[in-house]
Amino acid sequence: MPPESPIIQTFGLTKQFKHVRAVDSLDLAVRPGELFGLIGPDGAGKTTTLRLLAGLLDISDGSATVAGFDLKSRSESIKPLIGYMAQEFSLYGELTVLENLRFFSELYDVSRSERRERTDRLLEFAGLTEFTDRRGKLLSGGMKKKLALACTLIHRPQILLLDEPTTGVDPISRRGFWDILTELHLEGTTILVSTPYMDEADRCTRVGLMFGGQLFACDTPLAIRAGISGDLVALKAADWRRAKSILQDLEGVLEIQLYGDALHVRIDSARKRLPRIKRELRRNGVDYRSLRPAPVRMEEAFLSLMGQREQKS
Amino acid sequence: MAFRHLMAVARKELAHILRDGWTLSLVLFTPLLVLILMAYALSADIQHVPIAVLDRDRSPASRTFVAQITAGDDLELYATVEDLGAVEDLFTRGEIKGALIIAPTFAADVASLKGMPIQIIIDGTEPETGGFAVEQIGRRAAEFANAAIVNQLAGAAGESLQTIDLRVRAWYNPSLEPRVDLIPGLISLVLAFPALSAALTLAREREHGTLEQLLATPIGRGDLLLGKIVPYIIVGLINVILITAVARVWFRVPFNGNFALYFGLSALFMFAALSMGVLVGMFMRTQAAALALSFLLLFFPAFFLTGIFFPIVAMPEIARLEAMGLPGTHYAIITRGVFLPGVGIEVLWPYAVMLIFLGVVFTALAALFFRKKIG
After folding, report:
1. Measured at the alpha carbon of residue B193, what is the angle toward residues B328 and A104, in degrees to the nearest 5?
2. A168 in contact with chain B, both atoms CB, cutoff 8 A
């Protein structure tokens, strides 16, 4: 089965600001119905990419199409089809929850009867039913994000462009927010979401890892984590500083990170190296409680892939 | 153009004006406050100007002269000094604004009608006050001299004589109170405040980040800009009613024209001034910058060019052309015409046409330059 043609596609998309190249020759393809995550640290170029795709910035070089429309010439045709949610709270603080929803429904030409029906559903969806008359500026951080999402959804867009929707949101609200996104994904909406949180990548169907305005890896979360070279083992030792200094110099040890009370040690091959590691620890009198293979996290995969890319270049 | 989009923006903007105390007071009370302050500041007479007297004559005549000069509220005898050094000292310390020096021959010269040997020194750094002091001393000196002449003549003729009594009568403003003439001009100036708030509204959306969300919607540029202007036209017209009432009741400025006409022409002015405000504010990233620039463009020229304080005919050609491009110029003429002489549309139509023209041009320019981009 040939893959469906992309609903969002960019070719060498570049955005040059006065002093920085925020997006640098980006090639991205998102297929209809995907829940695609743009993952990367602050300053990676995620926000600029989303703003470009929402038609809010001029393209410096390259090209992009959204829903078949060329961004350079038809950016206004895209607007009724997308729902864009900015990173910062960008609704009207002086308007109430209901008034904000009404305002955006009018700008998107949602009929009155449709609005009534959707408003109730969205408010329930976002857990804002009790707060309909509260002014935007008086909502908590999580509620603001949910209201912004509700306003973005009022016209049932085919494509959602969400810029760090969970930044500054407490963990429980974050989880709730992702439940909503998953639900929308199951309904068939194409979602392009950016996040600096690596753990959120696992809830996407595909992720693109961004750094320095470029996409350096793009695959399913599973494949990305599998792509990491070597094996990961977790070591719990009473004297972890000492354990770390011993392991650091051993052959085959690629990287050591501290997670809570465990050291995550990446080695080129667990089968080959583990006996030697155990021997060295015992010989130096380091008392360890456990030493077992650990699952690779997205964060480790990100750092490892980024390191590989830097070595190449 | 989609009327529904325009109205959505207008309703949102109106809600913002009404709910945000700062904006509400800026658009509703600032014009009134500035009008009252300026009306009093501009029409307040100069009073109690401190002067020093150096009387080298020390005669009964010179003492009477000094007493007459400082009899009113306008000049105040701050000090009687013995030499010029003391005068200079008082000037440099800023304690006096003028000095009167009476020559030793004063009494003799006046009695023999040879002249009046006095000297007036003023602080040139405050020409307004200094000139006023010269004028007042000169007037009293002339009266004093006049009386001396009359006394001499009367003594010779053996009967009493009247001095000349000159009375000036000003039409339309019979009591020549400065306020009555100034207030209509001031009104046209202070009603530019709503335009100032319109200049701020786009910058405010930019600052609050709401512009980003707004520009991501399919709203048309014209709808967005007009939607922002309409609520301020409404607020501006409320201001027109409020301010006309205050001028009429508080300052007792006669309103001899047709109020309905004035209201209609005010709406045209609001349209022109607000589109200018939006145009100016569009290019500014922050509210502070928008405020500074629109103040520069909306108020600063208005002070000089609207003919309120300086007559336009006395201006160089280039400044006059610029004045024609400012809605305030035409509105000042309309306001003054409607208030005192009470003229109608048969006189004011060219200014109405100009206001419509400017409004359309500014709106078109704004729509042309406005791009739905955030960069």
Report:
1. 115
2. no
Is the Cβ–Cβ distance between A52 and B375 less than 8 Å?
no
- Taking CB atoms and an 8 Å limit, are B374 and A58 in contact across chains? no
* B219 to chain A, closest Cα gap in Å: 6
The per-residue pLDDT for B176 is 47
- Rounded to an integer, what distance in angstroms lies between the CA atom of residue B3 and that of residue B250? 41
Residues of chain B contacting A90 with CB distance shorter than 8 Å: 208-213
Predicted local confidence at residue A77, as pLDDT: 94
Q: Calculate the alpha carbon distances from A170 to A6, A140, A174, B14 in Å.
A: 34, 10, 6, 34
Positions of chain B with pLDDT under 70: 1, 42-46, 157-179, 300-315, 319, 375
Q: Are B100 and B51 within 8 A, CB to CB?
A: yes
Q: Does the beta-carbon distance from A82 to B15 stay under 8 Å?
A: no
What is the number of alpha carbons within 13 Å of residue B222 lying toward its C-beta?
Answer: 6
Closest in A56, A84, A90 to B373, CB measured: A56
Judge: A51–B374 Cβ closer than 8 Å, yes or no.
yes
Average pLDDT of the segment spanning A162-190: 89
Q: ipTM score here?
A: 0.85
**Strand pairing report for A206-211 and A214-219:** antiparallel
Q: What is the pTM of this model?
A: 0.77
């003391």: which residue's tokens? Answer: B86
Percentage of the residues of chain A whose pLDDT score is greater than 90? 50
What phi, psi does B20 have (nearest 5°)?
A: -95, 110
Section A33-46 average pLDDT: 93
Show which residues on chain B lie within 8 Å of chain A, measured between beta carbons. 2, 4-5, 7-8, 11-12, 15-16, 19-20, 208-219, 372-375
- Quick one: tokens of A65? 């199409």
Mean pLDDT of A77-98: 92
The residues with which A267 forms a beta bridge, in sequence order, are A231, A253
β-bridge mates for residue A162, sequence order: A85, A193
Nearest to A92 among B7, B210, B374 (CB): B210
Closest Cβ opposite residue B218 in set A80, A90, A151:
A80
Which of B204, B213, B214 would best serve as a mutation to test chain A binding (most A beta carbons within 10 A)? B213
Cβ pair B49, B133 in contact under 8 A: yes
- Specify the pLDDT at position B323: 74
Question: Do B8 and A103 make contact, defined as CB atoms within 8 angstroms?
Answer: yes
Which pairing describes strands A190-195 and B98-102: parallel, antiparallel, or unpaired? unpaired
